[in-house]
Amino acid sequence: PTLLVLAAIESGRPAPTNERIRGSPTRMEAVGGAAEERWASLCNCVVNFLLEEKYHLTALELLQELQEDGRHAQALRLRSFFSDPAFFPPDLVARASSSPPGADPQSLLEEKIAAEEKLALTEYDLRLAKEDLTCLKLELQKQQESSPDNTIDASAHEGFNQQDQRDVKISALGPLKDNERKDLNCAVKEYLLLAGYRLAAMTFIEE
C-alpha cells in the first residue's frame, strides 16, 4: 500500500472538475475524464488506508465531506463501514440515539475506540501476567535442583531463547515500518489538503 499511495500522489495533481482545458470538446472531455478517474482511484487508496490503519475519526470526517462534495461513489465503502453492525453494534447505536441532543456519530465512534483500547490493555496485562508466571516457574525449577549442572544451564538458555522469540514476535506485530507509516501519513495528508477536505485533514493530523 505504501508504493501505491505514494505513486498516486507523485503522479501529479489531477485537474479540478471546474478547471477549463483548452482544446476541442472531445479532447476536453477525454482529459477531464482521465483526471477524474485518477482522482477517484487515489481517493479509494486513501479510504482503504484510513480504514486498514484504523484512522476512524478521519474516515468519518472524509465521509461527510465526500457526501457534501457529491462524490457518492467514493463514499460508498465508508458508508458501508460505518453502517456495519459488526463494527458498530446496535446496542451502541441505541445508546447514542437515546443520548442527549448534540450526540453525533463521532461520539459513538469515540466510545467504540475507548472500548477497544480498554480491551487491548486488558489483553496486554494478561499476556504480561502469563509471561511472569512462566518466569516464576523457571525460577522455581532452578531452585529445586540439588546441584547446578549443564542441564540447568541448557534449560535456562532455552528459557532465554523462548523469551527472545516472544520479544521478536511482539516487536514485529506492526504491518508497517516507521518510515513507511511516516511516508504514508504525509501522502494521505497531502491528498486531503489538495482535495479540499480540510476538516478530514485536521482530524487526521490530530489522530
Automatic annotation (TrEMBL):
Stored InterPro entries: LisH (IPR006594), RELCH (IPR040362)
A GO-annotated cellular component: recycling endosome
PROSITE patterns (UniProt xref): LISH (PS50896)
GO biological process, one term: intracellular cholesterol transport
Residues forming coiled coils: none
Annotated source species: Aegilops tauschii subsp. strangulata (Goatgrass)
Top-rank lineage group of the source organism: Eukaryota
Protein's name according to its UniProt entry: Uncharacterized protein
